Model the fold of this input.
Amino acid sequence: MRCVEAAVGLALLTSVSCSEKEGSTLEEIQLMLNQPPIPGLSCPKGPRELQALWSTSVYDKGNRPRTPIWYAGQLPAGSWPPTNVAVTIIPFRLGEFNTRTQLMTIDVEMSMLWWDPRLMFNASCATELAPPHVFGTHLQGSWMPGIFDDPSAAGLWMPRFAIDNLFPSGSNQGFYTRDRMLRIASAGLVWYTVRASVDVKCSMDFSKMPWDVQSCPVRVMAREGVDRVTLSKANDPRIETQIYQTQATRDEMSSVEWGCQNITQEAGSYHGSFGRTYFEDRTFMELKIVLQRKDRYWRTHVIIPTILLLAISWASFFISRAAVPARVAMCALPPTPVAPVVLRAHPDP
Done:
């Protein structure tokens, strides 16, 4: 049973891309698979017994998950690998896209997956296990049902993160969460999902208006340095084909004035930012949305009428100088507003 659950973690965590640290995560999961079952693990029957695994007497949520003893023995003395958190940001719909304040409101779901060996348990006694549904796919494994709203509120360690380009104003917080869900696997995997409405700042360029294209990110940044916590991307091709590249998602991310052209998710880090933004290197995940302005309104009501008015005005130069009334009428016609005609019903005599 434990090998099957660890395989679930392998399928999710080996797809993590974190440049040079890509191999270390794979080796860590492989070593976990090759280890025999640990005897003496607690055997909870349900959520109440499971919650006893992280009581304050045995679990310190202030410390991040540590490498197991059987793996830490193979590391150099004094070294401690950072806790790797796989992050996926799924867009749902576009809210406000304000070009005056350069503000974008978007409804997203953030999914975070990390491994905490302190939460490993024996699943043979559990009576309320549930198979996980990850990225729309039914996976085999032993997971406790999501009954806890927030890892921190439940007493668990969770990665500290922030929306780097959040744009609160006045009493507006800029970040409203709902539908939070926490699931714990018997192999020690923790899966946390939260849906939120986010207001982010977007730097816009209007030099090519009304044919401008705006690229706006939602940047989730780790609040700890890369030597302690790293945020990385879960490279699952199903996310690209079933979510990011579908026309239905692009339609939800479009508005009357703007059309979504592309949605991508990228991992990055702040390097050498001392004295600029932060005092240490940090990683982040960025959901980038590319919006193109729909120019039909501008073509119909601005561009084409302007061209016609200029053409009529310049047409007066092709009229003979002797035809003064015609030249005057031609020059006065373009700026003359057309008064609306109001029809009023007269009462019968």
Summary: The CA atoms of residues 208 and 293 lie 10 Å apart.
